Amino acid sequence: MTTAVAHPRTGGSGGRTAVAAAARQVLKAYGSGETRVVALDRVDVDIARGAFTAIMGPSGSGKSTLMHCLAGLDSVSGGQIWVGDQEITSLKDKKLTQLRRDRIGFIFQAYNLLPTLNGLENITLPMDIAGRKPDREWLDRVIETVGLSGRLKHRPNELSGGQQQRVAVARALASRPEIIFGDEPTGNLDSRAGAEVLGFLRRSVDELGQTMVMVTHDPVAASYADRVLYLADGRIVDEMQRPTAEAVLDRMKHFDTFGRVS
């Protein structure tokens, strides 16, 4: 049974929540009895609005599970998840699907672009499906920020891997979601293309006011974030503000390399 817990703290102008997403005593377990596996063990965390948060940990630490629960892609066994001022763990499937569509953006390691659509059509596809017209001024600003102005009429097979991932980034940004989740968003890219995409994610926070949460195993990728959360064995065991790649790598050396569910 889910236990009632406190609403995330509020603040800022107009009483808007100071956090974009929050977990309160979140438990995620699979199976039962001797085969029961705990992926998240009573996790409490706030994701700051307008900031870039990276989530790291060894394989099996629960980092992807935490992101999926925060994004409403996976259910919890106990505790509560908030997106802004909306508690989502009690939402029915239809309402949860609507929330993900309207308030959350996703960027995954696989670009998930439709091969028959050009760059612009792929960017606006979620809004087209929802029957909403994009804010043209915002869309133009997003496209300029990710550097795609000259590639909008090209189909995915005419774009490099880095350019395809930039289309995926622009697609996530285009609907002005409250928060964007990225699961190893540069995992399929070489170091140069990865650095370009990470730079675009960083600029989307600094210049567009976006909230970004990224799961990564890469210390260089994590160094683009404002804050790094470290998970081990289903718990948040440490965090780092204003990380550098060297500091992240050094911190990771202190953690056990075993875990349960990635």
TrEMBL record:
It comes from Streptomyces gossypii. Keywords: ATP-binding, Nucleotide-binding, Transport. It comes from the Bacteria. Pfam families: ABC_tran (PF00005). One of its GO terms (molecular function) is ATP binding. Residues 21-258 form the ABC transporter domain. This is ABC transporter ATP-binding protein. SMART domains: AAA (SM00382).
